[in-house]
Amino acid sequence: MTTPCPVWFLAFTRQRSRLADIIIQLEKAGLDLHAQRPHDGAGGAGIVFLDAQAPLPEVEESLAEVRRTPEANVLAVSVGPLPTPSTWALLRSGAADVFSWFDVHNPVEIITSRLRYWQELDARVADLQQRLVGRSQRWRDTLRQVVDMALSNCQVLITGESGTGKELVAKEIHRFDPRPGKRDCVVVDCTNLIPGLSGSELFGHEKGAFTNAISTRDGAVALADEGTLFLDELGELPLALQAEFLRALQEGTYKRVGSNTWRQAHFRLVSATNRDLLAEVHKGAFRQDLYYRVSGWTCHLPPLRERQEDIVPLAEHFFQQQHGIQQPVDRQVYDFLLLRDYPGNVRELQQLITRIASKHQGEGPITIGDIPRSDWPDFAQLSAPAPASDELEAGVTHLLHQGLGLKEIKDQVTEVAKEVAIRHESGNLQLAALRLRCSERILQMHRREEPKERLRLD
Ligand SMILES: Nc1ncnc2c1ncn2[C@@H]1O[C@H](COP(=O)(O)OP(=O)(O)OP(=O)(O)O)[C@@H](O)[C@H]1O
């Protein structure tokens, strides 16, 4: 290994001298092995050594413990005769890879290359998280899959609702693609393919092939040669072109429109869709053979509503990276962002942050006052009905008869509004403050005050 690789290990074997010998060989190969129990916070990469006599319940329990650290990578290695197939099955469900030391050629190489790969994967995921922001477990798992796919050099289909980041992921797959000397990533949005000209856009055309073909032109397939072709909204690819495209994908050959000459282009295809492509196949709108060709490895990007934990880091990212705002952001702004729905996913959140950032003036923190009025939810629709105006009138009349002036009446109504908002938010002052568009401190003060005689609305 190029740099020492820290690896924890667990041993479930009595064959101590064999194990010691194996550990020496692995340390010579550059592994920095530490005997550690999983609950010591062992994440990262680890090896479970065992043999056919290993106490299975204990092994199972330890693996379950390890799995609680989501990014843990585990290799199970038998140091003696092969355990039974059912033991392997159990290990497989808890460990990423299993093999027997004495049954493979060069086990040191297998282990070190596997660990090197995991180390690289972790480093790349950390790097990717700078651009594909999110800290939820769901998102981190997705990023691991993205890096794994990118390094594999296979065709990838990215699915997910609009605005979940499909195009961003496609570009990152190209960035991490390890092909030596790879060329550009060419993007084609299939919704923009002009009927009649779509063949030319993909395959190019010869001069004079159709009325406006004043010169010979390369299409996207030629431009993506030795690079990546990203077909966005693949479900919109015209049926008439699908067979020709399949040939270009499988055999690397195509003809320009108006030409009889076969040309060659070898590209990696990454495609994306927010449609259910299999349903399109069943409807006859998408070729089954093309579907199976493009969907070898599918990566589904979860909608924002299934990863609420990512809303705040995404908002911070957009404030700082896109708008250069370094000032603090009031917690109430984040509360507001968390209360909302985002049918347009990350794109919708990004656009909202742009509106808030452009309303914000000066050097102070970003506050709820910077949220444009048009972005406030219609609380009237969300909450219980407001008191009818005649009830309000009756309450005010009562206060008037008691001889209260305008200021006192206003104060009373304000206090009632605070009380009602706090009650409707089940005592959550943050949410109540958000509704009233006032600071949480004002509500805390209200809580501390002795209740005076208040306006009654019922
Ligand atoms: N995890 C993320 N981190 C940072 N920015 C993101 C993330 N996900 C999406 N974005 C941003 O959100 C916007 C929408 O992303 P993108 O265009 O990749 O989505 P999409 O799924 O391809 O949408 P559509 O299906 O509508 O084409 C882009 O500006 C992108 O930069």
Give an account of the 3D structure.
- The protein has 458 residues and is an alpha/beta fold.
- The protein has 4 domains: 5-121, Rossmann fold (3-Layer(aba) Sandwich); 137-208 and 216-300, P-loop containing nucleotide triphosphate hydrolases (Rossmann fold), CATH 3.40.50.300; 305-377, Orthogonal Bundle (Helicase, Ruva Protein, domain 3), CATH 1.10.8.60; 389-448, no CATH class.
- Helices cover 47% and strands 12% of the residues.
- It is built from 19 helices and 12 strands.
- It has helices at residues 16-28, 56-67, 85-94, 107-131, 137-152, 166-176, 198-203, 220-223, 239-251, 277-283, 288-294, 311-322, 331-339, 345-359, 379-382, 389-401, 406-424, 429-436, 440-448, and strands at 5-12, 31-35, 45-50, 73-78, 97-100, 156-159, 185-189, 228-232, 253-254, 263-264, 268-273, 297-300.
- It has a 5-stranded parallel sheet with strand order 2-1-3-4-5, sandwiched between helices. Strands 7-8-11-6-12 form a 5-stranded parallel sheet.
- Helix 1 links the parallel strand 1 (5-12) and strand 2.
- The longest helix has 25 residues, at 107-131.
- The radius of gyration is 31 Å and the shape is flat.
- The N and C termini lie far apart (76 Å).
- The model has no long low-confidence stretch (mean pLDDT 86).
Name the features.
single chain, 458 residues, alpha/beta, Rossmann fold, Helicase, Ruva Protein, domain 3, 4 domains, five-stranded parallel β-sheet, 12% strand, flat, binds adenosine-5'-triphosphate, ATP binding, AAA_lid_NorR, Sigma_54_int
